[in-house]
């Protein structure tokens, strides 16, 4: 039995509805523990649907919340959990009642749960983009909402975990702008007629097509691009979970392709063994010196691994290394990029610009830090007129490790920040996991205060704007810890 102080707010399953009710509840001074959130159509017993006339209308300047919360709330509103509305209001209440920096406390139970929901939404959005398969419908003269008499229409069936169809539809409009299509799901359906994007209620799977004339070509293509040498069944199923297989035309081929993989790999190995040319890795002998300029000059001629062959020059670290101006913090990235390779200086390209922006935001002068990379030569592959970054191998990282180790021995920093997984694993070992260890002070042979965080280029490569913003906030939060530790 609820007390007379309890207020039930029945919200439509979208962010705008929750936002309107939350504003009124805040203006009325209702704390989270006095509100029961119910979702319209959820089947929950309706005790007393909220009447806005009972609440104080919100004013334009009554409440200030970080933009990061609004972005996060719009994402979490797509979650299927009925508890999301109460969680969002609880965090909103805390942000507006004495905890304005709450979102920076990642170990807080409410923040942790909110970010977990946001991550689940991002994962579902990614899976929808990866596993939607359009089929051309047969035009048998039936006029309906998804087919016109004079044009082909493509229809896909997908079963999302969360309410992401409207949030994700813009991606498909941009990707398939010239097609006319419908994406059908049990909750919500999206339709694009080449001009206008519309939404309708969900449907059952029997309303989706099961095959089309192009599908045999797709299956032939998929069978040919299937690489047996890269088959890791456990990882494949984690990326393409079996629950999606039933709706993928290529899923029927997977068992046969997996069974054939060992034979095809053996055949490929036999064919490559006859023409394989070994690549030499020569361990480098560093000069017996602790003068950074001597080490820098020696690095110019490094040929410890094959990367020097295609690089313009060695890109060594830079920053103060002597006396009272010696850097107290060292930042180690992965490797130079295209612009760094041409200029001979680390972190001067797009990732460097983002790095500088973050440092300026926290008030850390880059000229007082030492910045370098785990690998000193740019590894790339040609794509048209562009040189595209390639991730260095473990052998290439190991061949270059003596240089960065000597840099650290000379500088002896108070703080060491590894930007990205490559730098972290190069200096701290393969047991380091960015997703688990990011934003914490760790012990290392170089200093008792070693941190792992994002590489700025990883922020730029995030699949969507929301993830870029979210990861940038976390990145800046990690760098603030550096400033605090420096005092």
Descriptive labels:
flat, 17 helices, single chain, five-stranded mixed β-sheet, four-stranded parallel β-sheet, alpha/beta, 13 strands, 487 residues
Give your account of this protein's structure.
The protein is of the alpha/beta class. Helix content is 40%, strand content 12%. The protein contains 17 helices and 13 strands. It has a 5-stranded mixed β-sheet with strand order 3-4-5-6-7, with helices on one face. The protein has a 4-stranded parallel β-sheet with strand order 9-8-12-13, sandwiched between helices. Strand 10 and strand 11 (386-389) form a beta hairpin. Helix 2 (67-76) crosses helix 4 (109-131), helix 3 packs across helix 4 (109-131) and helix 12 crosses helix 17 (465-486). The chain starts with 6 loop residues before the first strand and ends with a helix. The relative contact order is 0.07.
Please summarize what this structure is.
This protein is an alpha/beta fold and about 475 residues long. It contains 17 helices and 13 strands. Strand 4, helix 5 and strand 5 form a beta-alpha-beta unit.
